[in-house]
Amino acid sequence: MPTCRRKRVVLTEPSEALLQAAKSNPNKEVYYLQQTGEIFETYEAYAARMSFYRLKQFQCEVTGKSGLDYFQALESEQQEAQTMHSRFPEPLKAAVLKAVQWQVVGRLDHLVEAVFDRFKDRYFVDEKVFVDAQGDKFYAKVVQVHPPKTKSDDVDVPAENQASSSSVTSPPQVIVDDDAVQIHKVGGDLRIPAKEALVRDDPLKYSYKVQILEEQHEKSHEKGKAASKDKAKWSGSFMDVQCSVMSRDRLAFSKSILRRFIRDCVDRDAAVASPWTVKPVIAKHYGVDSVMPEETRKGVEDIKRGEIDKRKKIWEDKEGPPTKKQKKMTAAQEERVKALAVAAEKREREAREKAERQQKAKEEAERLAAEKKKKKPIRYPTEDLDVRLNDKEKKAGLKVKKPTPSKLGVPFGENQGTFEAFLTSWNFLVIYGQPLHLSTFTMDEFEHALRHSLVDPPCALLGEIHSTLIYNLRTVPFTRHSAVLSLLRLQDTLEEEHRVLNVSIDELAGAMADVGNNWERIPLRHNEMRDGWEEALLGCLKDHATLDNFPRLREVLTRLLFAPEPHAEVSSSSSSSRVSSPAANNLTVQSSPSERYYALPPADRIDILTLMCNLAVSSKAVHSHMESCEEQLTALRKEKIEIGRQKKQYTEEMNSLAGETEVKEPGTNGTVPDEDTTMHESSDLSDVPSEDGSETASTSSARQKRSARQKDLRQKAHTQAHAKQRELARAQAASAKQALAEHRRLDEEVNKLERRLEAIEREFRKLLGAVRIKPLGKDRFHNRIWWFDGMGSASLLGSGGVVQYGTGRIFIQGPSEMDLELMLKKEDDDYETRRLEEEGPEGMLAPSEWAQYTEPEELDEFLAWLNPKGVRELALKNSFIKWWSHIAPGMRKRISDLNISAKLPEARRSTRTKPSGHDVSREPYMMWTNRRAVNSV
Questions:
Q1: Each residue of 1-49: pLDDT tens digit?
Q2: 930, CA 20 to 30 Å: which among 167, 175, 297, 607?
């Protein structure tokens, strides 16, 4: 029956007036609810009841599903009941229902426990069971049940854990109903105590004749335990078995399904100590007696009376006896009442004092718990800003102040925006060097190339970078003359004759008209030093750039196409910034990009490369490379897992070899003394004097011969024992040598796997850089720590294990605006003070401000400053430890290269001639060559 708020829904009975009216007027119209069979006299009552049933507040009593309306819950119960009745063994139903009829048990769970314990080892005719026979499990049907035999008709019964089989041509006759009544009659009666029922009707003494069924059930329950020929052998045969080798399917008989069966078939009144009764329809179907026997009725009434008296006594003890008009008490009774009152008052006082003591103890416990909670140690690692150095740690030498990173040494550090654009461009060109067909170069080489201002000799690095990007941008969709159109739209918003660098938009458009028109078809061959790349660059900007994606478009195009007067150019040739003399700002002479590119300030060159890199990201070559990197990353992850498994397997084998060697050594030392002891014992026994006390000459000679023979035997036994010992020692030495060789082999395999794991980590870093770039971590103030080496097409190790670097330094980026807001909310006014104390005024970085560490000693001090008690700095320190073997050598290699390049000009000076100017062509950035170049047309 569906429940609502944990109570069963009771159907509405028709009123007496309605029943009387129906009798007097059979044609009276009423409202009938078909699903429940309820009858209502008015439509309002019918509608109210239907509205109640439609509420989503009912629960299925069987499955526990809630949020249903009444009809859904009823349908769910009916489906579950149908499923349950189809699964529950049919021969067992009548026995279980007869056992629970008229039982007075408080909770249904206790009744289920009792029934399950009684029937779990008792089986009935026509039941389907599992039988264990010779290690296999078969699905069988019980065809005959033999109760325990008396002494007069005892016969041989199979052993308790054995099953005997016999092939029978015709099945035996099933026992008749008169006999079936006697089966498990005592054991299934819950009125008899369990121990007594077990003694009088032991289930282990029953014998069952079962028939093996077809193999369709064997497939579902055995799953291949027996071969097909064995199934054919047993199928259809009969066995005499006992309950110890029999079992029921858990889907058919378990405590849960038994509970559902009993709950569906029985009911109980709400009165105290009411018995469980089988529903009349079900009782009639299974032949269960619905009339309570007189003996059972008396027992139920006695239980009910005892329960009522027990509750009444509890109520009287709690509330006191009801007041009645008392008779006049005698003196003895008065004394007794006074004594009881004094005792009650004493008990009340003691109870009050006990409650006060308990309250004080509770308050004391709460106080101690609060103090303990205050003094509870912090579990590390925790939030970094919650970690502070105490006096003990400061005295131990832990660093309080962070080493100050250099802001001035950052390339183009005078403008942080320019540096970020420079860093982004270098990173893109190095990471995607493979699809761009561009060899790697260091950040120092890239910086010096961007500062190169001589037309002769030209910088090959600049030509290769721009040429590879131009080839790549030929595959990216563009709009013809987009730069000119954008400038013309700008002209409409400006005043007439508005000039930039003394050049108007009309003059600029006229100068652009005949330059770089066929840039997508100009051949930029590597073996021709990429001749003409400057004009192709201008054509690329004409078709790809707009004022939206390149705000300095007008200024850059003007500088590429116009030159100042010759005298003004000479005076400003040494300047490398965007700010120049007033004479240089007047560009009046039209020129060509090949002559004017090297006069561009480095900031403008960086802006051009930034635009080209941003556009190249959407090219097909870069996208294909990213997808290839993703696939390789997946393969590396799988390989790493497999190597981890192999390493674990090799380590376990090495440990087992070491354990076997330790076990063998003490075992061999104890074998030989046992043989020696045996020989000594045999010799002692042989030297026992004879029982005859006379020592005649013949006896003496016999003893001498026997003694010599025994001596020879002992000598021979000793020789054999020593030979065995030597043979055992040789075998043990050979085994130890073999185990040592195997251990060494496994150790070499583990070392190989570890080296492969290191190579996988380096390869993983390279491939991951092409997909996403992440910092090494953050410090306590959310400064981000960056290391850009070994990503994309760059490698950390060259041929022969030579150290390679890209930046050769560690960059530090200031916290973001969001991180600053979070820290200010957490630390309030103390945040700025703490930063000033631990970072110093020069070490505090503003949002998006950059600094760097260039020497390993500075980085050592920084690592010593990190506190591993904080979660961020612990992860950052672990990242440094992981890559330290590549970070520190790369920094030293960069310092060495800088020192060598600084000494070269001095070493190349000739002593026979006067000192000449610096030879730019010998600089490292000028000696760079593109080994990945392709002579495209």
A1: 788 877 888 888 888 888 888 888 888 888 888 888 888 888 888 888 8
A2: 607
Q: Cα separations (Å) of 434 from 305, 430, 818, 906?
A: 95, 9, 36, 37
User: 904: which 2 tokens?
Assistant: 């070269």
Cis omega (within 30 of 0) for bond into 847? no
Percentage of the residues of the chain whose pLDDT score is greater than 90: 35
Strand-pair partners of 503: 500
Task: Give the residue carrying structure tokens 């004097």.
Answer: 689
CA distance from start to end of the chain: 86
> Which DSSP string do the residues of 511-575 spell out, in sequence order?
HHTTSSTTGGG----GGGTTTTHHHHHHHHHHHH--TTT-TTHHHHHHHHHEEE-HHHHHHHTT-
| Type and span of the H or E element at 33 | strand 31-33
What H or E segment, with its residue span, contains residue 637?
helix 620-669
Per-residue DSSP letter, 131:
E
Write b or e for each residue in 65-93: b if 16 or more Cβ atoms lie within 10 A of its Cβ, otherwise e: eeebbbebbbebbeebbeebeeebbeebb
The whole-model pTM stands at: 0.56
Give every CB contact of residue 495 below 8 A, 6+ residues apart in sequence.
none
**Distance between CA atoms of residues 314 and 321, nearest Å:** 11
DSSP annotation of 151: G
Report the pLDDT averaged over residues 187-206.
Answer: 87
In one-letter notation, the amino acid at residue 393 is: E
pLDDT in tens, 73-119: 888 888 888 888 888 899 988 999 988 888 888 788 889 999 999 89
Q: Are 546 and 567 in contact (CB under 8 A)?
A: no
User: What three-state secondary structure class fits 697?
Assistant: helix
Q: Phi and psi of 15, rounded to 5°?
A: -70, 160
Cβ-contact 801, 844 below 8 angstroms: no
